[in-house]
Design goal:
Elements (H helix, E strand, L loop, with lengths): L20 E5 L15 H6 L1 H7 L3 E4 L27 H13 L3 E6 L9 H9 L11 E2 L22 E3 L5 E3 L14 H16 L4 E4 L16 H6 L15 H13 L6 E4 L8 H5 L19 H18 L4 E3 L8 H4 L19 H5 L9 H17 L3 E5 L20 H5 L43 H5 L5 H15 L6 E3 L6 E6 L3 E6 L5 E2 L4 E5 L7 E2 L3 E6 L1
Parallel strand pairs: 1-2, 1-10, 2-3, 3-7, 7-8, 9-10
Antiparallel strand pairs: 4-6, 5-6, 11-12, 12-13, 13-17, 14-16, 15-17
Bound molecules: alpha-D-glucopyranose (GLC).
Length: 557
């Protein structure tokens, strides 16, 4: 297969994000330079050449701020500092410099819905007592029942258990996530101003963009009487006036953020993590709001041509509505890795074709011991799906380790688990630790080259096979496939649309991008003939022009 020679597509500096490949780093599990078992900022610097060789346009760092890690760092003690176990602000600056020197942009995670309970504001709120200005930065309420010992409402947190926690003087505070993550009151001007300051703080340090955590939850209508869970569930979503989720006025906040973003040259970018009704996504992706929004549809889909086609069409249409570009995700730090999902039986689907169970979770609950996982098949399908994803118009968000075809770790002992979901929903969810196990860099040695000490989550022995070192030495490895795919994508990409090509088969998808770049993905098990054109790259080796099952090929016609 020969490589195409073409002009590198030059993108306007302000538009760099529209078709970028963004690589998500979960810093505590990426690379540990100081040997304490936790990944750190110097670890990222030490792997800057690896990222450059991979060919990514940007990295997105999950939280690296000071945190007690009650929720993997999404419980932030201080938004304008680096966790001392991960480094210092000087290290951060050096990292930005090292990445920028290699042409890689830096996106950081902003967690505005909640602080940690160790944040100085929350400590002040506890000390200041009821009715104080300090408590007004959060959502404090009196309890119910004769002595106020019942929570203000029967709401369940996202990680299980009550969404309300009582403090020593008897008041309760709201936490949609863990009790260590008290929700902020975004009606409070001081809260708004402080986040504007945080955005400027990181933008001034050279950060290029922000990933906005739970972007659809900031504003809430908590007027009395509070609705019950049954009331909340009965309310329609997607109307803009649900008491908790996706309220229209959240965009007033983002309009202020937008002013900050646009005061920089090039403007800082943002991408919303907003789990909202499909028709609401363009509000977040609008250029007057955050500018781009995640689409998690492929995360919830099986390896299935019809599902992929429906999702691709729907999201390209949504992107066109907002004027943004689409985003594509197969894996991240919250879901079962796609190389494993695709090796499992398909999820059960409801009448609206959405999966009833989160793909892969049921298998995880058994500790991954049921003999249903076919790892080879999972990786083969993952390679095919990743190539398809990389051929789509828009931004591709990759999660660390997927370039290795890395699999989920299902059998982490209970004593080693960290995710609050595991502790707060006994027997219901094992949580998300299985995709957060530190990366294997070498085949042998302490923590497979992650660092010089035992890693904070244990790595299984089979990680050796998926290590960077093992894959470097194997030209057929997933790592080499990603490198070649990213390099080709840079050369071939132009325009932001695709045209579907007729394949005569329901289980084969083919489309053409501008300038003759063609992607053909065979989701089925029987081979298919490729259309005309020079074969540039394929997710598996094959002879001639017959594309095997569960394989993607790129052509130039
Ligand atoms: C987002 C993050 C997730 C975190 C939650 C609460 O969904 O992706 O990891 O637990 O927000 O901050």
């Amino acid at each position: 297969m020969t490589e195409v020679v073409a002009e590198v597509v030059s993108t306007d500096a302000a538009d760099w994000w529209r078709q970028a490949v963004v690589y998500q780093i979960y810093p505590r599990s990426f690379a540990d330079a100081n040997g304490d078992g936790l990944g750190d900022v110097q670890g990222i610097i030490s792997r800057a050449d690896y990222l450059a060789a991979l060919g990514v346009d940007a990295v997105w760092l999950s939280p690296f701020y000071p945190s007690a890690l009650a929720d993997g760092g999404y419980d932030v003690d201080d938004y304008r500092d680096v966790d001392p176990r991960l480094g210092s602000l000087d290290d951060f600056d050096a990292m930005v410099e090292a990445l920028h020197a290699r042409g890689i942009k830096v996106v950081v995670d902003i967690v505005p819905n909640h602080t940690s309970n160790r944040h100085e504001w929350f400590q002040e709120a506890l000390a200041a007592g009821r009715g104080s200005a300090a408590r007004d930065r959060y959502i404090f309420r009196e309890g119910t029942g004769p002595d106020g010992s019942e929570p203000p409402a029967d709401w369940t947190s996202m990680f299980g258990g009550s969404a309300w926690e009582r403090v020593a003087d008897g008041q309760w505070y709201l936490h949609l996530f863990a009790p260590e993550q008290p929700d902020l009151n975004w009606a409070n001007r001081e809260v708004r101003d402080d986040f504007l300051k945080t955005l400027r703080f990181w933008s001034d340090r050279g950060v290029d963009g922000f990933r906005v955590d739970v972007a659809h939850a900031l504003t809430k209508d908590l007027s009395d009487p509070l609705p019950s869970t049954a009331d909340l569930l009965a309310l329609p979503r997607g109307t803009g006036n649900h008491p908790i989720w996706d309220r229209d006025e959240v965009h007033e906040i983002y309009a202020e953020w937008r002013e900050v973003f646009n005061s920089y040259d090039p403007p800082r970018t943002a991408v919303a993590e907003a789990w909202v009704e499909t028709h609401r996504v363009p509000l977040y992706a609008s250029p007057t709001s955050l500018g781009q929004a995640f689409n998690f549809d492929l995360v919830q889909a099986d390896f299935d041509a019809a599902q992929f086609r429906r999702i691709i069409d729907a999201n390209l249409e949504l992107a066109a509505k907002s004027g943004s570009s689409s985003t594509w995700v197969l894996s991240n730090h919250d879901v079962v890795r796609h190389a494993t999902r695709y090796g499992l039986p398909p999820a059960e689907h409801g009448p609206d074709s959405r999966p009833i169970t989160e793909p892969g979770r049921a298998w995880l609950l058994t500790g991954g011991v049921e003999p249903v996982l076919d790892r080879d098949r999972g990786e083969r399908r993952a390679r095919a799906a990743s190539m398809l994803l990389l051929a789509l118009p828009g931004s591709a968000y990759l999660y660390q380790g997927e370039e290795l075809g890395l699999q989920e770790v299902a059998d982490i002992p209970a004593a080693d688990r960290q995710d609050p979901t595991f502790f707060r929903s006994p027997g219901v969810s094992v949580g998300r630790d299985g995709c957060r196990v530190p990366l294997p860099w070498t085949e042998a040695g302490e923590s497979h080259g992650f660092g010089a000490a035992a890693p904070h989550l244990p790595q299984p022995a089979w990680f050796a096979q998926w290590s960077v070192e093992a894959e470097e030495g194997d030209p057929a490895s997933t790592l080499h496939l990603y490198r070649r795919a990213l390099e080709l994508r840079h050369r071939l990409q132009s325009g932001e649309h695709l045209d579907w090509l007729e394949t005569g088969r329901d289980d084969v998808l083919a489309f053409r991008r501008p300038d003759g770049w063609v992607n053909v993905t065979n989701f089925g098990s029987t081979p298919t003939e490729l259309p005309d054109g020079e074969i540039l790259l394929a997710s598996e080796d094959f002879e001639g022009r017959t594309l095997p099952g569960e394989t993607t090929a790129w052509l130039r016609s």
